[in-house]
Design brief:
Length: 411
């Protein structure tokens, strides 16, 4: 046996990652390599495809960076590169499939970061998330997806468990770490939890600053309370089309040269954390540790095709009462276009706060959010929105109840 045979080395790496025996691992590896997976471009494209199919938001970086090809999947960054780099790779923009720079017989390796900017965090006393972990080589794109999902879920669980609760929301008093509380109004001093952003006690909403905080914390923190994604979704839904473009101008006018994430223009692109695998409702079992909101809604519509009709039935029970029956009985009902626009936010709150509840079992449950949408009218004004506050609150109240109960009873 040749100890340093590169193929056997890759087979052994695959065996330790998958638990397969030598014959099975060798056969699988030959099949993968026969398909040309040793092309970094091909592996990058396959990874993008399997992550998209699994419901992750994906962006592919077209130009090589640090001698590798990157893609961004939810909170994770993956970089496909060569394990043994030639000394000629100096600038960083060399392509890993360029034979004049890299030894193309050397195996590909995939490095993983999560979140985008992994750094030492004081309250953890270590690097938060995952900092450039090299995934086992010799795996198919689908196996790599499973590795990434497992690693990101474990890193979030570890960071959540290690984060102390040293502060409290200034509206509801619930305990959080100070980094989990954000300013949502013109006052930088008032720090709130994701359940209280739209509470009636808060005046002067400041959407542009909250959006900036949400994008920046997403870049830096893998353990942000899940509910913040729902807050971002609602702000984007209330603001309507083109909000991302407006945000970019507002940020740049105020000296912040960040580009807003695409979810401000397209709320269905929002990354939603899902409950840990052992606590995940069966209807979400096909997803990983998180997913793109649009993928979740499409799946819900497939599994529960009558969900909107059920919502309308509940709404009629609530809003059509005798005294209105003779005179335009349905004038209180939410217009179809408002329902379509705000529905993603109702789903986002139901799912994200179910996640938050199951991740924080020793804390008060987050459903007091249902009584904390009184300032939606102020937000609509601040966002220059054409929606009616009453209609928005109706979709949120009834929609969150409906989807939450569906998740709770989903056994
Ligand atoms: Zn609160």
């Amino acid at each position: 046996m040749t100890v340093n045979d590169p193929f056997k080395t890759r087979v052994r790496a695959r065996m330790s990652a998958t638990g397969e025996n030598y014959m099975t691992a060798a056969r699988a590896l030959r099949a993968i390599e026969a398909q040309g997976q040793l092309s970094a471009s091909r592996l990058q494209a396959e990874l993008a495809e399997v992550f998209r199919v699994a419901g992750w938001p994906v962006e592919v970086e077209p130009n090589p960076e640090a001698g590798g090809l990157r893609l961004y999947a939810g909170p994770a960054t993956l970089q496909v590169g060569r394990a043994a780099q030639s000394h000629r790779a100096r600038r960083g923009d060399e392509h890993p499939d360029d034979p004049s720079v890299f030894d193309l017989d050397s195996p590909l390796e995939v490095a993983l970061w999560a979140p985008l900017t992994a750094d030492v965090v004081d309250h953890l006393g270590r690097v938060a998330g995952i900092d450039g972990e090299i995934l086992p080589s010799g795996l198919s794109a689908l196996d790599l997806l499973k590795q990434v999902d497992t690693a990101v879920a474990a890193a979030r669980a570890r960071d959540l468990a290690d984060t102390p609760t040293d502060d409290e929301c200034m509206v509801c008093g619930d305990a959080y770490h100070s980094s989990a509380l954000l300013p949502s109004t013109s006052s930088k001093e008032i720090m709130v939890c994701p359940c209280c952003v739209f509470d009636g006690d808060l005046l002067n909403p400041y959407p542009a600053r909250l959006a900036l905080h949400l994008d920046r914390t997403r870049d830096e923190d893998l353990a942000l309370p899940a509910g913040w994604a729902a807050v971002g979704t609602l702000v984007a839904c209330l603001a309507g089309p083109g909000f991302g473009d407006r945000l970019r101008r507002m940020w740049w006018d105020n000296g912040a040269t960040f580009l807003p994430y695409t979810h401000w223009n397209t709320p269905s692109d929002m990354w939603i954390w899902l409950p840990p695998a052992d606590l995940r409702p069966p209807v979400l079992a096909g997803f990983g540790c998180g997913a793109r909101l649009g993928s979740i809604i499409a799946h819900f519509d497939h599994v529960h095709p009558n969900l909107r009709e059920t919502y309308r039935a509940l709404e009629r029970d609530e809003l059509v009462v005798e005294e209105y029956a003779d005179d335009e009985p349905y004038t209180w009902l939410v217009p179809e276009e408002t329902l379509e626009r705000v529905w993603p936010a109702a789903v986002a709150f139901a799912i994200a706060l179910t996640t938050q509840q199951r991740e924080r079992p020793n804390h008060r449950d987050p459903w007091h959010v249902l009584y904390s949408f009184e300032s939606v009218g102020d937000w609509l004004q601040a966002l220059d929105s054409d929606l009616e506050s009453f209609h928005v609150q109706e979709v949120l109240g009834t929609g969150i109840h409906l989807v939450r109960d569906l998740l709770d009873n989903d056994v």
